[in-house]
Structure to design on (177 residues):
């Protein structure tokens, strides 16, 4: 199986963690995926924690889960802003229901909690939101990359190599609904 030409959405909002957006973005493009930054539509450009700009090429109100093969949710504090936007939460929930890869790193676990997709599943995250995942019904695992079905989670930027390898494997596999 291949990821060539598979369409991947990377959600973006202000205060995203630079590496957690751009590392998967370029890694997936390197594999041949068609990668799109999907913003809330609130601003034309979003700024990272360190001031690096990311300009979405799509707006969440104009996308459908049926049009994408996977979604990546970077961390930083952007997931707290993302989960305040029902269309972003709905998109993540719909991707999960379709059995498509949902990849969340660091604080992106907040989006998984808001989408109510961690109950009864193994997952990891940045240690400060561990209690949030556990309270939402997840089994917390302290490992670099945790895969549970179509869900892949990681803790922080140092886990990005394992996170991206797991995501590419999931994306290359046939969808299990």
């Amino acid at each position: 199986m291949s990821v060539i030409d598979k369409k991947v959405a990377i959600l973006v909002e202000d205060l995203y963690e630079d590496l957690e957006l751009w590392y998967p973005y370029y890694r997936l493009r390197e594999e041949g995926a068609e990668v799109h930054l999907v913003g809330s539509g609130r601003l034309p450009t979003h700024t990272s924690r360190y001031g690096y700009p990311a300009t979405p090429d799509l707006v969440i109100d104009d996308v459908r889960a049926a049009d994408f093969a996977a979604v990546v949710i970077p961390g930083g504090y952007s997931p707290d802003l993302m989960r305040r936007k029902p269309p972003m939460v709905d998109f993540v929930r719909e991707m999960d229901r379709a059995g498509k890869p949902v990849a969340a790193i660091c604080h992106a676990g907040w989006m998984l909690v808001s989408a109510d997709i961690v109950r009864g599943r193994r997952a990891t995250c940045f240690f400060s939101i561990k209690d949030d995942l556990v309270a939402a019904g997840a089994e917390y695992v302290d490992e670099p990359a945790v895969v549970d079905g179509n869900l892949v989670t990681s803790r922080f930027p140092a886990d990005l190599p394992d996170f991206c390898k797991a995501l590419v494997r999931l994306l290359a596999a046939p969808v299990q609904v």
